[in-house]
Amino acid sequence: MKRTAFIFLLLIGYSLKAQVLTPEAFIEQVRQNHPVAKQAAIQIEKAKADLLSARGGFDPSFTYEASRKTFDGKNYYFYSNPELKIPTRFAGANIKTGLENNGGANLESEVTSGQSSYFGLELPVAKGLVIDKQRAALQQAQIYRSMSEQERNRMLNDLLFDAYIGYWQWTSTYQIYSVYTKFLQISADRYRLVKLAFANGDRSAIDTIEALTQIQNFEMLQADARVKLNTASLELSNFLWTNQDSAYLLPEKTVPDTIRFALNLSPQSLEQLLQRASTENPILKSYDFKLNALEVERKLKFQSILPTINLKANLLNQNYNVFKGVNGAFLQNNNAWGIDIKVPLFLREGRGEYRKAKLKIEETNYELAAKKWEIENKVRNYFTETNLLQQQIRVTQNAFNGFTALLRAENLRFQNGESSLFLINTRENKVIETAEKLISLRLKYLKANYSIEWSAGILR
Question: pTM to 2 decimals?
């Protein structure tokens, strides 16, 4: 009774010194500080920058052209033409307005002398009416902006899966190390009692050797477990970063949440998981956005089949007030207009590009169907694995309980002089073997359970 109380107080003192790192606290730290998590956020910022660049295609532009020629005291010509051009997203139209101030003895015949102003419109009526390169680039940049969020989710999904596995791997090695430490202490206590019994003539010398051999066996196992625990701790440290972007090692006194390790998680139903995988998986959602971008490309390539017909019309006026005195008669007598027409005779380039765009969509749809089926089967596989592992855990837990009961009974018989150290050691080895198997199964179960969410793409 005194020994039990002593061990209890010892465990309390150790727990006060040790700091438990829960999986929630660990994962939150990874999510906030790990470089890969921050890289994932950068994907969105890069897509925003691309979107800003695409919007620049519709920025108004100001140009100013001026030239003058004077030779041998003669003013041949001077031109001054500031112009403002405003691209619009409506039908590919461009609005232009500007001022002119021209003069000299040798002006070109189509140039208006003096001060004048104009306001005009450029409009494609065939190729470029529905969509053009600028509008296509903007639409695709908006799609890629949304797609970047899925890329971030994919990176986080992979990162958190690795982090969870690293945490439970560390927990399992800690559990095995604790088992060996516990039985090493028990065997050391037994060795002292056997030595005392041998000194009193109640035990033979071979019993002390057998008790010592068990201690040495546990010392070797504990040393090996310590090496594996140290390796797992260092691997877990790969995920530990401060908010100042500096890595740090797992503190020596930090211990895992062993209670959570022994609990069975409750996954959703298979139907719910498959539904979430279909609607939330970032890989599948990225395919949807990719198809949307390809559809924009298809519409753009279709324009290559159409003839180029561009209309240009300008309202002209004297001086710098382009709308002064504007009425119906003024419009008829003060305008400039033109039309550009270009029709490829065979349309082979346009038809080829359009066909390629359609084939890309078809190819991507096949890829999406194959990827969706692959993901669904992964979810089914890991879901089935967790159910089978749960059954194995129950069987192994019952076996562990049975072997532990047998060990307690053997210990009682040994204390009454009705058993031997050989049987005690055999029972202990069987308990430890089953404990190792149980810990291994729990680790596999946790890995399979998190693999369900990882394959479904819902780890965040």
Answer: 0.84
